[in-house]
Every structure is written in structure tokens, then in C-alpha cells.
Specification:
single chain, 7 helices
Length: about 230
């Protein structure tokens, strides 16, 4: 019965002018009708046109962004300044940027690395130096603004091989542990001795701008009090 139905279906297809598919033959391999060819040409043209539009849009966006970038002027190149810093009794002629800090000038340009860069925000006191005898945070000071000022760092505090009394007292009273903050502590203490501590304030309060992360404050205060008592 099944064979009869398949034979009748084949005859009906032949009567309609269509050829039956042989075994293993696919419809995609058969010739397309005129409508099929027209659809295929339309799809090809649509893909070509769409791709061309997409490419032109990308090119237009690229050119627009490139023009926008070209319209932005590059940042101005900092102008080098000629300054002469007087540090520890010596003059150092330098060519520096106007935004160079005194700390960077001391460490990177002059080679005096005793002053430490801790927080770089003027909060820890590790960078403390003396400017005309008064203590300042060198990380917040512009080097060009201190031309002609007498700068004293930890390297210039001793008199040759003879330690400054504060340096000797810090060693005697164990006023340091890791030693990173010690140059700033000693320079701040030297400034304190010259400035004096206001009435009613203790040494601990007058040294509050210098932080010791090791917690060696008892030895630091004892060393300063010892030198103050001898002054």
C-alpha cells in the first residue's frame, strides 16, 4: 500500500512539471526559479549595501574623533627655572620645574636623602627641615620659593664628626626604633629649641606634627627635655 502511495505522489509531481528529489539530493543544489534568483540577488545587494554603510559610519566616526583629538591642544611643557638653593652652608645652582618641591630637590637633585618622604601631605613630619632656623614640611614647600633661604637638613646638623646634642640625646635615650622618622623628629626638635614652646604647652604637644609609627615617643620626649634642660 505504501509503495502505491509513493508512486502516485511521484506521478502527481511529474504532472505539475516538477522533478522528484533523488536519494541524497538536497533542495539547495537544485536550480532556483526566477523568483528565487531574484531573492538571492536582493539579499546579496542588501548585504553589500549594509556593509558599505557600516564601514562608512565607522570611518566617519574615526575621522570625527581624530579631528576632535587634533583640536585639543597638548598640555604646556613646564618651563625650567634657574634657582640657587643654599643648603647646609653650600650653594646649589639647579634647573628645576616650577612645581618641584623642596623635598624632591633635596633628595633627587642635590642628593641629600636624609629628609624622608613619608605621607607626602605634610602630616607625618618625616620631611621636616629648617628654613632660616624655623621648621617646615619640605614636601609642601616649592623649591623655587626658597631661593636665598638658609636650608638646614639632618646632614648639616652635626659639626663635622661631632654630633649635635639632640643627635647624641636620641641615641642615649633610645629615641628611635626603625629610624625612618628620626631625621624629621630631630630637625623638628632643633626648630623647637630655637622657637621655644609656648607657655602651658608640653614638648609632646609642640612635637605633635611629627609621627612615629614605632611609638618611640617616651624616648623622643626624654631626649628633647634633656637637651632643653641643658640649654
Amino acid at each position: 500500500m505504501k509503495a502505491v502511495n509513493e508512486e502516485s505522489d511521484t506521478k502527481q509531481i511529474e504532472s505539475c512539471g516538477e522533478q522528484p528529489l533523488n536519494k541524497g539530493e538536497f533542495e539547495a543544489d537544485l536550480p532556483l526559479s526566477e523568483d528565487g534568483e531574484a531573492r538571492r540577488r536582493f539579499l546579496k545587494q542588501a548585504l553589500i549595501v549594509g556593509g558599505g554603510l557600516a564601514a562608512s559610519n565607522l570611518l566617519l566616526n574615526y575621522e570625527t574623533s581624530a579631528n576632535a583629538r587634533s583640536d585639543i591642544s597638548p598640555p604646556p611643557i613646564p618651563t625650567a627655572l634657574s634657582v640657587r638653593l643654599r643648603v647646609n652652608g653650600k650653594d646649589y645652582p639647579l634647573q628645576i620645574d616650577s612645581q618641584t618641591t623642596l623635598l624632591d630637590a633635596l633628595r633627587e637633585r642635590i642628593g641629600l636623602s636624609g629628609s624622608k618622604k613619608g605621607c607626602d601631605r605634610g602630616q607625618c613630619g618625616a620631611c621636616t627641615v629648617l628654613a632660616n632656623g624655623r621648621r617646615i614640611n619640605s614636601c609642601l614647600a616649592l623649591a623655587a620659593a626658597y631661593e636665598g633661604t638658609e636650608i638646614t637638613t639632618i646632614e648639616g646638623l652635626a659639626n663635622g664628626d661631632q654630633l649635635h646634642p639632640l643627635q647624641a640625646a636620641f641615641i642615649e635615650d633610645d629615641g628611635f626604633q626603625c629610624g625612618y622618622c628620626t631625621p624629621g623628629q630631630i630637625m623638628s626638635a632643633a626648630g623647637l629649641l630655637k622657637e621655644g614652646c609656648p607657655p602651658g604647652m608640653t614638648v609632646r604637644e609642640c612635637m605633635s606634627g611629627n609621627i612615629c609609627r614605632c611609638g618611640a615617643y617616651p624616648g623622643i620626649v626624654a631626649a628633647i627635655e634633656e637637651v632643653r634642660g641643658k640649654a
